[in-house]
Design brief:
little secondary structure, 1 helix
Amino acid sequence: MTQPGLPTPLNRTLDQELAALVRGASLECLVCGEFVLHLGDVRACPECHTILAEGSVLSEGWKVPEIELPSAMQAG
């Protein structure tokens, strides 16, 4: 509990960070801090290639989808 007049700490738990990322309130990769891409129900980081997908993908025997991420190095 904070005392009156003191700033409230902004530390959030991993669960809170993941929830914010899934609902679109956060656009920051939890691994490297870069912006993530929203590809349907999947969040993917083009920098470190981290993929966040909703559901119990591994426990249900699903395979993580292969996602072609746009390359920043490709000429327009």
